[in-house]
Structures are given as C-alpha cells and as structure tokens.
Amino acid sequence: MTNPPKSDLPQGTLDMLILRVASLEPIHGYAIAQRIQQISRDVVRVQQGSLYPALHRLENRGYLSAEWKESETGRAAKFYRLTEAGRAQLDAETANWARLAEAVGLILAIEGGAQ
Amino acid sequence: MNWWARLTHRRQMEDRLSAELRYHFDRLMADGLRAGMTEEAARRAARLEFGGMAQVEEECRDARGTMWVESALADLRYALRTLGHSPGFAVAAIATLALGIGANAAIFSVVYAVLLKPLPYARPSELVTVSSYIPEMRDRFPSLPVRATDFAEFRRSARKLAQVAAVAPMGMNLTGAGEPERLFGARVSANLFALLGTMPERGRAFRAEEDRPGKDHEVILSHDVWMRRFGGDPAMVGRTLLLDGDKYEVVGIMPAGFLFPTLKQLHPLMPLPGHIDIWKPIAFTDDDIREEGSWNYGVMARLAPGVRMAAAQQELDAICAAISKSLPAEAHATLGARLTPMSAMYSGEMRQGLLALLGAVGLLLLIACVNLANLLLARLGSRGREFATRSALGASRGRLVRQLMTECVAIAAAGGLAGLAISQAGMRVLMELAPRGLEPAGGVSLNTPVLWFTALVAVATGAAFGLIPAVEAARGDLLENLKEGSRGATGGRRSGRLRRTLVAVEVALSTGLLAVGGLLLHSFERVLGVDKGFAVERVLTADLALPEKEYPGYRPVEFVHQWLESVRALPSVAAAGAVSGLPLTGDYNTRMVFLETDNKNRADRPVASYRIVTPGYFGAMQIPLLAGRFLAETEPAPAVLLSASLAGKLWPGVPVESVVGRRVCFQGDDRPKTVVGLVKDVHGDGLEKDPLPTLYMPHSRAPFQTMFLVVRTYGEPDRLAPAIRAAAWKIDRNIPIPAMRTMRQVLSFTVARRRFQMVLVLVFAALALASAVVGIYGVTSYGVTRQTQEIGLRMALGAGRGKVILGVLGEGMRPVLFGLAAGLLAAQAAGGLIRGLLFGVDALDPAALGGVAGVLLIAAMLACYVPARRAAKLDPVAALRAE
Which CATH architecture has domain A13-108? Predict the structure, then answer.
C-alpha cells in the first residue's frame, strides 16, 4: 500500500478547512478528518493530535457549536455545526487565503528567477 | 460553556472528551477491520494513527482557553504534589510559619481586645473621664482625682457634657448570711448606668432621689457576686442585705461581663478594688461638697451629641477658671481639669508594652520569612533542572514565578491555619500566665478582626518569603541549568551570595529582638535590685476592714490592739504590727506637710504619703530607724514619724538627729505634731517610682477602720494564716478577712506586668535566635557541600584539618558579623522606641548589648562549627571524586 506524498498544512489553514467542512452540515470529528482527506485526494491528512485541539479551540471561540447525537453507526458522537460567527470567520479567512494564494502565485511566476 | 461551568462540571467535561476521542479511535479500528486486518492489527494501526491519547486530551484541555482559575488550580495541585515529595521541607516551613503567624495572631488578639475594640458601652466614642490638677503643684502631682465640690460645679455648668457622674471606691462587710464577706465596689452617681448605656439585666438602675444621704440604702450587684454568693437566686431583686450592719435593698443585678474600671484605671490615685461586686448611690452630703481637700472622686462623663472633646475641654477650662477666681487669693493655687477618652483609661499603661510586644512578634515573623526564603533558595539548587526542563518545554518566566509563588502561598496558607490553632492555644497559655488583674477588659477571643489579621499576615508572609527565591529562580539563563545541572551546582556563586546576605539580614533582625529582650531583662533585674526599704521575706499581711457603724471613734484601736496581742502570742511570730497602707500597693492617702510656722495656704510644701501605724509595724517590716525613736503604744502628746526624704524636703541640709523634736502640721489638721523619729524611705507605689516622702501617724491618735496586719514569722508565713484569721474572729465573728498575702506575693504582683512582658519578649527572642542559627547552619552546610571538591583538593595539597575548620568558620561567620554590626545599630533605635519600658538602663546598656552579642556569636559559632567539622573529616580522595 503506497500513500501519496503528504503535504504539511500551512499554519492556520487547518482551522479554515474545518470551518469549511463543517459549513456543509453538522459533522463529527472522524468524518471531518475523512472528508478533508477525501476531498484533497489524500494529499492532506489531518492528525488527530491537531484536529481535536483545533475543534475545541474553535468551539471555545464560538465559531462552532457542538451537540451530541446519534451518528451513522448508531453510536452517539459529538457533531459540530458552524455558527454565525463561524461563517463570518470562514468568509474572512477564505478571502484572505485567496488573496494570499494569488500573491504567492504571482511571486512564483516571476520569469527568469529560479533556474 | 463558561469558565464557571467548566470548573464545576469538570468530571462531565472529561468524560465527554474521552467519549469523543474514543469514537474516533473505534472508527479507525473499524476501518482496519473492514480492510481485512485482524483485530489485534487493527487496534495497533489505529493506535499508531491516533497518536498519544493522553497528549491529545491535554491539548484539547489547553485549547478550551487556559482560564486563570483552572491554571491556578493546576498550579496549586502541582504545588501540593511538590511539597508532598519533600515532606521534611514542607513540615519545617509550615512549622516555622505557624509559630510566627500564631504568635502574631495571639498578640494581635490581645492588642485588639485592649487597644482597638470599641468599649462595650453605648456610643463609646462620646465617653470621657475627667481628672483635675493644680497647676502650681503639677511637679508633685501631675494629675488628681476630682473634688466633690468641683464635680458638683462641672455637673451644674458644663453644657457640652450631656451627663457627668462621680465614682468612689467602697468596701462593705456582708454579714448575717453565712461567713462574713467583704464586698468591694463603688459608690456611683445615680445616672452612671444611664451614662454608660448599660442597664441592670434584672431590676433597675438607681433613681435620682436615691442619690441623697439617708435615701441611699439601695445596692446593685454584679452578675458574678449574684451567682457566686447568692447562687443566682431569681428572687434576689427586692431582697434585703446586711452591709456594714445596715439594711440595703437589692434593686438590680448588672449583666454578666459588665465592664467597670478596677484598680488604678479610673485614676492612679484612686484605690478602686481589683473586682467590683456592688454599687450604691454616692449620695454626697453637704459636708462632702464643702470639704476642700477631698481630691477623692473619679468622674466619668458623656459628651453632648456632636460635641468634640476639644470643645468640651475649652468649656471645662472656663469653668475651672471661674472656680479658681472664687478661691481665696492667699491660697496661691488654682484649678485645672482635663478630659481623656475613656478608651485610654482601659488601655492606659498597657499600650506601650503591647505595641512593643506586637513589634517583637512582627520581627519574629520577619525573621521566619527570611529563614524560609533561604530555605527555598537552597531548594532551588536541587530544583534547577526541573525549572530548566519546564522552561525548555515552553513555560514562560512569569509562569515559573507564578508556580513558585503558588507554592509559597500554599505553605503560607497551611502555616496560617496551623498558626491560628497555635494562637488559640497560645492565648489560653497567655491568659493563664497573665498576672491576675491584668487580663484585658472583656476578655480575649477569636473574632473576625483577628481572623482577617491572620489571613492578611499569612498571605503577606507567603508573598514576602516567596518573592526573592521566585525571581531568583526565573532570572539568568535557565537553560544553563540543564548543562550545569549535572554538577548540582545550580545558582552557583550568585545564589550563595544572596543566601549569605539573607543570613546577615536574619542575624541583624535577631540581634534587634535579642537586644530588646536583653534590655528588658536587665531592667527587670534592676527593678528587683531596687532598695525597697523593707525586708520582703517571711512577712504575712492580712486585710482588715471594720464597719464604721459598729466601730466608731477609737474602737478600731482597741480591736487592732487585741488582735495584735493574740497574734504576737502565736508561736513562730517574730513581730506584728498594723498599717493603713502596705508598701508597693499605692500611695492613695496623701497630705501636704507644713512647718509649724507656715502659713497653711502656701502650695509649695512637700506632699507626703500619709500612713497610720501601730507599734510593731516597723519591726515587722524591718524598716530601719535612722534617728530618734519609734512610736509608742500610747503617745501622750501629738507625735509623728517622718521618712528621711520628707525631713530632707522640710529642712534641707539639716542632719537627721537635729530634726527630732521639731514640729510639723499637715493639711486637714492644724495642731502641730512633734517629730519623734526618722525612718528610712519605703517604696510606697511599686518599685519603679521614687519613694514618696511619708508621714506616719500613730493609730492610737488617728483611728482608722481599714488596716493591714503585718506579721513577721520565723517559719513559712502562709501556715499562720488560719491562726491569724481565727484570732480576729475570736474578737468579732462578723469581721471578714478578705485577703491574706505574703509581702513576697505583693512584690510579685507589683512586677508581674514587667515580668510577663519580659518573659514573652525573651521567648520571641529565643525563637528568633533559633531561626537565625538554623539559617546560619543551612548556609554554611550548603557551602561545604558545594565546595567538597575544593576542600578535598586543598587537603590533598597539605592543608591541615585546623585550617579547613578555620576556613569554613570564617566563611560562615562573615555574614554573621555583618548582621551583628547592623543589628546592634538597629538595636539602638529599638532601644529608643522602648525607652518607656526600660528601668535603670539606657538604650545603649553595654551589659545587655554585650550579652546579646556574646550569645549570638557563640550560637553562630556552634552553627558553623558542625559543618566545619564535617568538612575537616572529609577524605581528600573521596572528596576529589565526589560528584
């Protein structure tokens, strides 16, 4: 079994990805990790050691709200849902990311630079 | 969830967190199983994937937002765990603090009860006492009780005093119900209880019309005597008592714990008894009011609402000026009166002593703090790596300081609690040891102010001793410790210097405290060494008070004569006599003494203590005769005996022999009296005041109902007490003998307060010295451990054991010498502050300060010698290898 090369997430991006995934529907931690991995075609693999502290941090800041309910396996799991504040934060971060990505792209596209 | 809910629902939070992570883990395992792994393999894979469960949990907890409370609790838990790992340190630290805080709490309880607590009267700040003075005689009498005539005038004219009441001491013999008993109490103006705002718990206060001669046959009893003598009889009010042979109706009973001045509280010249059991109306007669020389009454007053004391004082000055104008011009005397807050009456003489004690325990606590700071610094040495590791793992310096401070506050809190327990026990011991009659009014108890004080002291202490080590721990390059740590030499040179400085400070503080103790000890010795003028040992005294009604005129002379005769006949009695006032107990009865030829209005003659004696008194007291002869059983002509200083004041420069045969008069008695002899001066009022000149009158010519029998014995004086009592009862079964004391006991009571104070300060000083010795030992011992290799090297190079010992001693004693020098300087200042408590020594007393320096040096030497010897016993080879 060979894994595609994994990429490190830039600082702060994980929060944005979590908020984005949670914006679709209430979702629990395991599913968030799965979803990010699938959507990124296995490029981004989220470590549990980062995922859960991030979830708790976002919940604490009021971007996510949490509720315990039955999951698809029939067991109770903690589902996170994006709050209004979370949506605003996601929008801001997405815009910020787009600007940053564009800027980085511009810099890398300089011709005659790196050989 | 807010932080409060987080704290209160901690358990639930933890369960949920585990459940959440567990769910994820199980799903990972399920994935593995679905991919065809065995259960064992799937679990392994999931574990690998998941990482450390505990670590994730911890990070989640962190992510919740590090609330300060939560981290403070964590700090506390950590602190307790750390302290639990070194129980020896914890116990030593807590015990040191508990002693310091306990001593402070105990002394503060007393200070609070005596100096700070409001008096248990209605609106106590309005209450004052009034004393008078004669400006022309202030050198001899700084302050006098009030005359009845002036009291009447104050009461009539003072508008700024809402109420004025007079008080006079009284003793009455209770007979007709069991054993005769002398009840002590006070005659008071009818409005006194209303003035104080405390009414009888049963019955009523006196009525204004009962405050008149002839109508005054009512008494009010103290709760105490009601319980003790009358068994708390519920029908007491309305009962009739036989007092001094007269019938009195009990009209009221005061509540338990009713505070009333005793002894010399109301005025130093007023012989109020040590406990007050009974009150009756003062009922001034017209004669009382007319009597011009009766400086006999205590006066209490309540300021009119809203009036300040200064304003009332001004008004009183004006009233006194008016009285002075009405005095005959040839009197050469005027009148003054002074208001004093009533609280000062109760705290009076204890104030300075108590503040000195509070200062002493404060110093003790400070020393304990320095000692603990030192102990903590030593501990930092061994904890250097712990801090380095925590710092490397991301703890900020502030975080480290906070952690250490938390430990200190935890120690302080434990010390405070233990201290509170100690203070309770200590207070009981204190009250047990406290001389009788010196207990604070209203007792001492654990109360809110004391609790607050203790809590405050504990927290302040924790901060005080924690701050230096905490800052020290966090400063410098922490990571250095990781490298250096392996050698166990953390903090190295700097820390060693800091610790030596702390030792110097500790020694300086201890020196100050020891110096105060030494000065008080030397003062005490000086007080005891005062030439009392009489011989103390093997003298028994008995109080006698004959009722005026049954013993009018010269009948007391007869009674005392008979009693003395039968006492003298007892075996083992060497001599016996009687006197109207015992030495050391106070000069209550004083007269101005004139030359025969004087104009009796002059105010510049000496004031003398006036004592009435029977033959045998001087022999029993062994007061030496200096010239002439003693008084005889019957004196055919008016005769007096003078003390040497009185003769010296009346006839300066005249030799004692020539004084005999001259004649004197005294205030209130114009008939000239012949001086038949001179005797040595005797301390009449304690040992610390110079003896007042004394004039002795023969009992046979000045009959007195209240006398003290003085018996010199060959054997143990106490054993004679029953026989002496029986001898009195053989003459009259209804005469109570309220108290029998040896002169040794009288003397002991006189110096009781001074001794009590001195013992306490010495105990505190000893504790301080012990602390300092522990500190010196600790630092020196630590120094030896740190320099093991160096010492080994020097020994290997040929240094002798003696040299090693001297080296360690020198190192250890250096901070001690610095501290001692600083401490002796500080002691001068301290000595100045307590000058009022010193007697016969000054603040620079070389004996006391030299002794203190000696004791401290010897103790410090011993503390250094122990580690020095250990150093000298080192095996150089082993020492060189020591790591």
Answer: Orthogonal Bundle (1.10)
Picking from B503, B410, B404, B560, the residue whose alpha carbon sits closest to that of residue B820 is B503
Assign B491 a pLDDT band (cuts: 50, 70, 90).
very low
Nearest CA to B259 out of B184, B193, B355, B338 is that of: B193
Interface pTM (ipTM) of the complex? 0.86
State pLDDT tens for residues A16-56.
899 999 998 999 988 998 888 888 888 888 887 788 888 88
Residue B203 token pair: 């019955």
Q: How far is CA B497 from the centre of its chain?
A: 39
Specify the 3-state DSSP secondary structure of B332. Answer: coil
Spans of all domains in chain A: 13-108
Please tell me which residue of chain B has the smallest CA distance to A71: B23
Closest CA to B753 of B114, B99, B105: B114
Please say if the pLDDT value at position B876 is more than 70: yes
DSSP assignment of B239-266:
-EEEETTEEEEEEEEPPTT-----TTSS
- B295-303 and B663-666 beta bridge pairing: unpaired
Cβ-nearest to B20 among A29, A33, A47: A29
CB burial of residue B495 (10 Å; 0-12, 13-18, 19+) = buried
pLDDT of A115 over the 50 cut: no
Q: Decide: B366 and B163 in contact? Cβ < 8 Å.
A: no
Query: Where residue B568 falls among pLDDT bands split at 50, 70, 90?
Result: very high
Dump pLDDT digits (tens) for B439-482: 665 566 777 888 888 888 888 888 888 887 777 776 655 556 55
Report the pLDDT value the prediction gives residue A75, as an integer from 0 to 100.
86
DSSP, collapsed to helix, strand or coil, labels residue B800 as coil
Q: Is the confidence at residue B577, as pLDDT, over 50?
A: yes
Strands B706-713 and B573-579: antiparallel
CB atoms within 10 A of CB B868: 24
- CB of B15 within 8 Å of a chain A CB? The answer is no
> For tokens 């109301």, what's the residue?
B266
Residues linked to residue B203 through DSSP beta bridges, in sequence order: B252
DSSP code, position B569:
T
Q: Work out how many CB contacts closer than 8 A connect A with B.
A: 59
pLDDT at A4: 47
From chain A, the residues in CB contact with B51 under 8 A are 47-49
Mean pLDDT score across all residues of chain B: 85
